[in-house]
């Protein structure tokens, strides 16, 4: 099948169906957009207590950590309460209205919150950024704080023991026994406690130094109420809807063509009947305005009859609902040299009211029962009767079933097809 014929069958033949699918798709997009009110997005920029990333992957990892915290329903619920927003599901807000992304490949994070109003959006974004920093600090510095607390407890215990050792040595000196074995043991114990205290102090300083060397989280830029609503993306959605409607419409048209195939186009219809195209009428022959100018059709019909050696033709309607009487009458009026019986019964000769067809004549087809005859001095067949041909009158869009039925009817009489006249018709 030619691409031109395929396009005619799928798009031109079913353009109303394709257009309806596109309209439905666009209408659905417009309804969805109307159901969702305008939103405002406020953003804050912050840094966490992490080292500056050196690669894009590290920046993404930091952003993922912050996103995991910011989209927690617990954190979102706390931010909503601080912003004074009620009646919203924290899980829904976290899923649909909170986004976290790194700014380029840096360690700076952008926390964005979308809401129906500008001021609440900024308030929620600021509260959520603070919650992210506190949660991150509690997670990263919790171990350091636990270690320092344990070291402080152990140092306190050692210092208490050292104090007791000093008290006992002082008591021995009062009694003059500090130089004995008991005093030596106390001094040795006090020295051991002092060494342990030095070790613990060193560990405590190391932990504090490590904690102090980490970057401090901070808000780089607080959120401010946005001045304009977010873009709805309506233009892009409408374009996508048009493409989707076009695809669905063409698909449905293809399904209809599979179930009920058609032949579209005057040249395609003429090829189906194996005859030349004599012309195309602007409307069905029995409609007003269809037969205003038949000069071109009549001229081509004369050439076709001369080339095929046919002295008379009969009109055959591929669509049985079309009346060909007016077309025959107009051909007779435009081409006086052709004798066209008008309103004659099927197969009747001029002056013969019995309705019996003459020998060699082809009965006329169509509800008007018209036949086109050549002049009286036209070529005769070997038995002295006029040679008869068929002119098929068919719409530009014809179902394969009608083509088959018409072809079978032509095969019954074995009469040559001189040409094809097509016409346009409106389709519901």
Name its key features.
428 residues; five-stranded mixed β-sheet; 4 domains; TATA-Binding Protein; four-stranded antiparallel β-sheet; single chain
Short description:
By secondary structure, this protein is of the alpha/beta class. It contains 13 helices and eleven strands.
SSE layout and pairing:
Layout lengths: L2 H10 L2 H21 L4 E8 L8 H15 L2 H11 L6 H7 L1 E5 L6 E7 L2 H23 L1 H33 L6 H33 L4 E4 L12 H26 L2 E3 L1 H8 L3 E5 L13 H14 L3 E6 L7 H10 L36 E3 L14 E8 L1 E3 H14 L3 E7 L5
Parallel strand pairs: 6-11, 7-9, 9-11
Antiparallel strand pairs: 1-3, 1-4, 2-3, 5-10, 7-8
Helix pairs in contact: 2-9, 4-5, 4-6, 7-8
Q: How would you portray this structure in words?
A:
The chain is of the alpha/beta class and 428 residues long. Strands 6-11-9-7-8 form a five-stranded mixed sheet, sandwiched between helices. Strands 2-3-1-4 form a four-stranded antiparallel sheet. The protein is built from 13 helices and eleven strands. It starts with a helix and ends in a 5-residue tail after the last strand. It folds into four domains: 3-35 and 232-259, no CATH class; 40-140, TATA-Binding Protein, CATH 3.30.310; 142-213; 264-423, no CATH class.
Order of helices and strands: HHEHHHEEHHHEHEHEHEHEEEHE
Q: How many helical stretches?
A: 13
Shape: rod-shaped
- Helix content estimate: 40-55%
- Uncertain spans: 336-385
Q: What distance lies between the first and last C-alpha atoms, to the nearest angstrom?
A: 26 Å
Structural class: alpha/beta
Sheet with the most strands, sense and barrel status: 5 strands, mixed
Report the average pLDDT across residues: 77
Number of domains: 4
Oligomer class: single chain
Going across the biggest sheet, name each strand in turn. Answer: 6-11-9-7-8
Beta-strand residue percentage: 5-15%
Total strands: the figure is 11
């Amino acid at each position: 099948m030619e691409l031109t014929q395929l396009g005619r069958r799928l798009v031109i033949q079913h353009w109303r169906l394709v257009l309806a699918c596109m309209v439905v798709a666009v209408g659905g997009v417009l309804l969805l957009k109307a159901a969702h009110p305008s939103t405002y997005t406020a953003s804050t920029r912050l840094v966490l207590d992490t080292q500056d990333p050196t690669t894009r992957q590290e920046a993404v990892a930091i952003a993922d950590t912050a996103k995991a915290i910011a989209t927690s329903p617990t954190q979102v619920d706390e931010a909503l309460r601080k912003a004074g927003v009620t009646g919203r599901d924290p899980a829904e807000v976290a899923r649909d209205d909170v986004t976290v992304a790194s700014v380029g490949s840096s360690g700076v994070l952008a926390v964005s919150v979308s809401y129906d109003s500008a001021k609440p959006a900024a308030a929620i974004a600021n509260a959520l950024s603070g919650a992210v920093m506190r949660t991150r600090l509690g997670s990263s510095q919790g171990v350091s704080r636990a270690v320092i607390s344990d070291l402080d407890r152990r140092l306190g215990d050692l210092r208490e023991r050292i104090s007791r050792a000093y008290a006992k040595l002082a008591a021995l000196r009062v009694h003059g026994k500090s130089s004995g074995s008991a005093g030596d043991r106390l001094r040795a114990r006090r020295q051991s406690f002092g060494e342990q205290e030095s070790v613990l102090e060193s560990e405590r300083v190391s932990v504090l130094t490590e904690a102090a060397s980490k970057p401090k989280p901070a808000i780089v830029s607080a959120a401010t109420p946005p001045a304009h609503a977010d873009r709805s993306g309506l233009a892009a959605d409408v374009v996508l809807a048009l493409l989707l409607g076009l695809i669905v419409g063409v698909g449905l048209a293809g399904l209809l063509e599979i179930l009920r195939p058609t032949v579209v186009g005057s040249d395609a219809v003429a090829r189906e009947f194996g005859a030349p195209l004599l012309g195309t009428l602007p409307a069905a022959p029995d409609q007003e305005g269809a037969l205003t100018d038949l000069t071109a059709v009549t001229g081509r019909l004369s050439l076709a009859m001369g080339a095929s050696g046919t002295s008379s033709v009969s009109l055959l309607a591929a669509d049985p609902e079309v009346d060909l009487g007016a077309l025959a009458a107009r051909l007779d009026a435009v081409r006086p040299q052709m004798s066209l019986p008008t309103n004659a019964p099927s197969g009747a000769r001029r002056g013969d009211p019995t309705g019996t067809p003459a020998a060699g004549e082809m009965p006329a087809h169509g509800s008007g029962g018209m036949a086109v005859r050549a002049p009286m001095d036209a070529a005769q067949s070997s038995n002295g009767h006029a040679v008869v041909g068929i002119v098929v009158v068919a719409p530009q869009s014809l179902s394969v079933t009608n083509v088959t039925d018409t072809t079978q009817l032509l095969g019954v009489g074995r009469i040559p097809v001189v040409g094809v006249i097509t016409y346009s018709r409106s389709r519901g």
